[in-house]
Amino acid sequence: MTKSHILFLNVTGIVMFLLLWEVGGRIAGENLLAAPSIVVFEYIRLLFAGDMLRELVGSLRQMFVGFGLACAIGMPMGALMGRIRLVDALVHPWVSMVVVTSAAALAPIFILMFGTGFEFRVAIVFVSSFGYVTLTAYHGARGIDPKIIDVARSYSTGPVETYRKVILPALFPYLITGARLGLVHATRAMVMAEMFVLVGYGGLIFQTGQDLSTAPLISYLVTLMFVSVGANMGLGWIGRQLAPWYDSKMSAG
Amino acid sequence: MLNRRTVLKSLAAGAGAGLLSQPFGMTRAFAADHAALKINVPGNTLGVHVPYMAAINEILPELGEPAAAWERVPKLQTITQSILSGQTEVGAGDAISTLRAVEAGADLKIIGNAFMHTSLVFVVNGDKVDTLKDLEKDDVTIAVNSKGDFTHVMVVGPATQAGVDMDKVNVIKMGGSGNRFRALLAGKVDGVPLHFDQAAELATQGNFKVLIEPAKVYEAFLGEVWIVSGNWLEVPENRARAKALLTATTMAFRKANADAGWYADMYRKYGTKESMQTASDEEIEVVRQALGVDIGTWPNDMNHRMGVYEQLLPVYEAAGAIKGSVDLNKVVDTSLIDEVLAELG
Amino acid sequence: MSHTSGAAALERSGDIARMRMRDIFSSSWLLYLLSVCAGLLLWHSISTQLPGVIFASPFAVAEHLVGAMAEGDLPARFLNSVRHMLLGLVLALLVAVPLGMLMGRNETVFHMCNPVMTALFAVPSVAFVPFLILWFGIFYEARVALVFVMCFFDILITVTAGARNIEPRVIQAARSFGANRRIMFFGVLMPASYPFLMTALRIGSIRAINGMITAELFFAAVNLGEYMEDASAVFDSAAMLSVVFLLSLFGLLVQELVKWSEAKLLPWHVRD
Asked: What are phi and psi of B162, to 5 degrees?
């Protein structure tokens, strides 16, 4: 299939989706599902009204602190788990537990521990993305072919050198994948936490949901979609720039 | 306190966060004299909230204190909870959930009123609800701010008296009177507590009626109160800051009662509803009369007295909001307001 | 990668390896126990630093769990919660698996649907809550709908990716042996799909459990959500943590169950 053929199909798909949505919106009415023709104008209005972008930037800043911490702690931890059996045995059960724990159930407890501001949102985002980042790094570190390390050893490379020149590059694609997966969950957790205490961008979404028209609500979701898709593509791009061997097939799925 | 906060922080984000926010916490504890109070306030500022918003933004600086750093948290229950974490210093929250937290072993203090009584009324969709008994219907859903707070109690009390089985009533939680307003208007719920200025606006838009008026049912009723944590208050600097807050609030109450022009300015400046920002002096005066004079939401002496609580405790207990095992002397701290009143005269 | 090296190691050192395996197996149970104890100890030591209303100790949680279990209230609520979770999950599987297979095996459908699906997947499912309230109200239907939305996209993406990655050589080989459509489907495509269908089931059920409690907290509070709300209203941190603990345990259990059945049903595809 040629590139232009794929592009044609992509565009056809999007146009068909928009058409379906438009028809559905016309039938259901604005207060059940605003049609794209209405949303476009509402979106432009909100874009210039300022609230949307201001809240979004504020929320994203807090999310990236939590997500950054999850990467900073989860990646080395995952790598250690993958290379050292004892660490793995001790930590793995709890990391698995963190992965399956629902962030929504933690929210009421975290409010008591961290309040409703910065610390709360950072903590929720951290907990929800930490497990994914760690486990992906773990699988990467475990999967490193021992033969490669043997080769490095036989050239009498020191442990630090081995780590820097052999293990890290082999791990890199996994770290980026982990970050992409973690980011998906970080965004989910951020919105959930904010909807729970009704602050920030999530609060905006929830409160707009009570309005008569659904056009502003859809506008907020569209922005969120742009941000999420953009961040994911950005991470993929960074991955390919920093490590040309980063296989795009590894993208989070 | 510092120890607990440290533990919490390192828990929050592991060692990294601990390193990052530790210096932050230190400055807060030691430079309390100059730090702005961190306050959580409810989601909307309506007529009744205007004086305390003016107090924390305008009057505090007049007293030589920095204006408060405040954030909106629509759920009252959450405001009380956020004080426990130590992340927020003061909350304009709900007395009932504070009493409940203390019953569970929390160390919280109520140091004053953000406003007295309540401007809330319970408004229902007139097409579906006519009497209190109708609340039991399957297709009727009511929304309160959060379970067991004063927006809930103001319904439970009168409803239980009228023989309504509250277990049969569909109750959901919805933070923010503005949200509840829109939900009722859109027909998503059938009964909500709203501030009376909102209720008047709603009445022009359809068949909505006031089912419960707490001002008529209860002689005294607690609105929002200033909540702090006990060990926060033990720090002398914090005590001074809390006192400044109460001084500012009392001054704002008096100004609101005495100076219609000032109240109108503040009303337009801090009101969260668009119509508030463009309201005329006459319109605002109606609100001020109703709240300040008729209901008496801003007493000149703040009316933060143990007697009020002793009187209300059985009411809250009857509504099932609290167990009744709470030691009021541990929660209600009137020493600060006494000092303030002695100074202000 | 890892199982090839593991297999090679086994071949190399035969009996010794088998003996070592046994040692590791027995000691890994010990380590597991050690890990659980260490975690509980950490939990306990944190809880001693915090007031009981904020964070309960593991003992308080255990005590609460025993009491609540004996009373029968908590298990009953749990069962009720699981009901709408299962319905949502099954519905999501019924729609997402065929759609994912179609997208994965048909290039035209894939390129037409992919941009829209990626965009919808990017929106956090919980952000659809206001819509679900509009369309389904705040009771049973809404909860099932949220569970559905929360696992649908994750399942769809997993199945699509899996179906696209079925080794083309396998299919070509089958074709060159003259396999007809029926044999192709039942003999080649289906067995090749089991592994990623299992993955989809695992991811989907975790998301469904997540969706179950999210729904109960965000719509009208019922079952476990109500239990948490009530506990939160009276500042009973032991009860709140009990629910979280139960849910996590349940999640782990479901995950292990899927993994175990995968090992039983698909012995040729054992993950490490």
From this structure: -85, 10
